[in-house]
Amino acid sequence: MDALVLGLVLGGLYALLAQSFVLTFITTKTLNFAVGEFVALGAFVVLAVAGWSWLPDVGKLAVGVLVAAVVGAAAYRFLVVPFMTEGEHDVRWLLSTVALSFVMLNLITNVEGPSPQRSETARLSGAVDVLGAGVSKQQLLIAVLAVVVTVLLVVASKKTSAGLVMRAVSQDPETTSLMGVSPRLVGMVTYAVAMGIAALTGTLYAATVGASPVMGAPLLVASIAVAVVGGLSSLWGPLLGGALYGVLSEVTSYEFGAIWGETAGLLLVIVVLVWRPQGLLGRRTEVKL
Amino acid sequence: MGKLRSMHKALGVAAATALALTGCGGGADAGGATGSAGEDGVITVKLGVVGPKTGPASLYYEYMDQTFETFSDDFEEKYDVRFEVISEDDQASPEETARAVSRLINEKGVHALMGPPLSGNSLQVADVVQKSQLPWLLPGPNADEIINYDIQPNWAFMTNFTNQQIMAVLGERLWANGQKVGIVYSADGFGQSNLQHLKSWAEENGHEVTAEETIQPGASDANAIIQRFKDSGVDSVFMGITQGADTATVTRAIEQAGFEPKTIMTTGTILTNYKDVADPSQWEKIQIVDPRNFLEGGDSEVLAAVREATGEAPAIPTNNISTYAILDIYAQAVQEVGDATDFEAVRQAIEDIETVHIGDSLTIENPFSEDDHVLYDDDPAKWHTYGFDENFELVHLGTAAECLQKSC
């Protein structure tokens, strides 16, 4: 039972970050491989404003999210859009986002240094008992937030005009542009929201492990795996993927040792890719050639 | 035209990336370093230093840098030996380490090599450096395997303790009163070496390791590791972990699981990066052993001088001291030989060194012999046991031998 509970909580962390990948993929069919550095960016921005005693923690979080959102939108405009002009098979954005990842990593390291720095913003100390398992309050907060963010995104995409536009651009950007909607603008907004979520994850995670330039890297593989398992085209996907990945890796670690935990999670990805390449909740899209 | 513009932009991104990656690489050439005495009577040595100048592991270069900055003038004044440092950035990667070492030896013609600081990377280049027949100064690594005494003359000298030594000092403490021992170790050269020597000591002394678990750098939790320890009945934990931040992940999991082992021991690596990501309740039961006295005498003088000269905390306190020791040893040897380019004579002078100075008030006599190129030995009476107060300040609990008797 301990492994189940802790796996679900751990899956929540991965699921929250995985939403960054899912959001950009749904709308722009691209993934930002610099998400790990946006995790760190958010954490360090919040650390920078931590001394603003007049601003409550929620406000500091908002500053971190906002800065990452602006940088994310700019990254889409200047490092993704120019590298996807040759149609669906143009994947140069993949290289440009990887390059962005290296540049951001070096910049953050040069400015902040390599060592983890303590972050007290939005930090919950201690653990609570959940069905007999000791769960860190901070990790529980992140897991709950993963559910809340997912529900909000689903509701926004289905019930608001912005969500309608996002879905329209996702399905047929050319036709929507003929109707006066700018797919580029929608992409920028999506990237802003996605990188804001990455920054939010980073800030809350930094309260546990400290803010460091490389803090996002260990989360990246698991988050991509979670997004793929759940389905890159489904907003519910990260929750399901996170739950499965987290529980499987935690139970495997309990039974066979920590070294096998992550391996089991990645094996799950392979199984899902073979059985349902679009992910468990993803929709299969047919490309007319 | 659009394609051309895209290509230009792609090249721009690639160039920016390359610049960002290489921005701090390379080192200055040491034009006047002949290795013999100049008109002023000072011998200028071309010292190749390899380590991660950039990237997340850059603390492992910074401690060498801090020690040079603090003590270079002192060594020149004391031994008439000036260090001209030619540095190479290995970014802590094995491939870059091999390239950096090769450049320093073959292209830069250094008179001695210091680093790399990480055990795994040192192991990777050990054969190459040994064949180059240059004095190899190792203040950082702990893995015994780096020095193969079957090859003589041997060129490597270590001034940190080794993993075999720490296990010899700690073994009885860990297994005291029939305790069951579990080890959690980093998935790197340092961690693997810790595991190997703990198991060897246990086997030689009729014990067994009850649980062994590895932790990946940056792991988001260690809950499963601790649960397995609990389930196995482990009541004595050794953490052989390279980064303090990963140690914090383990102690956080210990607290979270309500796990209360009787003994939790680790190494001086906890002094780096741990305090900032852990809470007092997580470190109150942790103890470390180390051959250095961080609180008084020569070791503490070195740390105080680094703090004063650089205005920063020593990057890795244990290794700041080790770097001071190896520079003292090498400078003495060069002074005695009078020519840093007579590599064999310098190597022999190091091996025969009579007194190593650490700070103003600590000396270690005759540390080396043909088959012992390690500064410290494994006598528990000479090692110190430390705990931590609520501010993570070290508290001296006694020597390792005393703590074995009275269970500190």
From TrEMBL, chain A:
Membrane topology recorded in Swiss-Prot or TrEMBL: Multi-pass membrane protein
Protein's cellular compartments: Cell membrane
Transmembrane parts of this sequence: 34-54, 61-79, 140-157, 185-207, 219-237, 257-275
Keyword terms: Amino-acid transport, Cell membrane, Membrane, Transmembrane, Transmembrane helix, Transport
Superkingdom of origin: Bacteria
Chief location: membrane
GO biological process: amino acid transport
Record's GO cellular component terms: plasma membrane
GO MF entries: transmembrane transporter activity
Entry-linked InterPro entries: ABC_transp_permease (IPR001851), BCAA_transport_permease (IPR052157)
Record bears the keyword Ribonucleoprotein: no
PANTHER family for the chain: ABC TRANSPORTER PERMEASE PROTEIN, BRANCHED-CHAIN AMINO ACID TRANSPORT SYSTEM PERMEASE PROTEIN LIVH
Similarity comment: family membership: Belongs to the binding-protein-dependent transport system permease family. LivHM subfamily.
Protein name: Amino acid/amide ABC transporter membrane protein 1, HAAT family
Automatic annotation (TrEMBL), chain B:
Domain Leucine-binding protein, chain residue ranges per copy: 44-374
Organism domain of life: Bacteria
Record's keyword annotation contains Signal: yes
Position of the signal peptide: 1-30
Family annotation (InterPro entries): BCAA_transport, Leu-bd, Peripla_BP_I
SUPFAM superfamilies the UniProt entry points to: Periplasmic binding protein-like I
Sorted UniProt keywords: Signal
Family: Belongs to the leucine-binding protein family.
Annotated protein name in UniProt: ABC-type branched-chain amino acid transport system, substrate-binding protein
Organism: Blastococcus mobilis
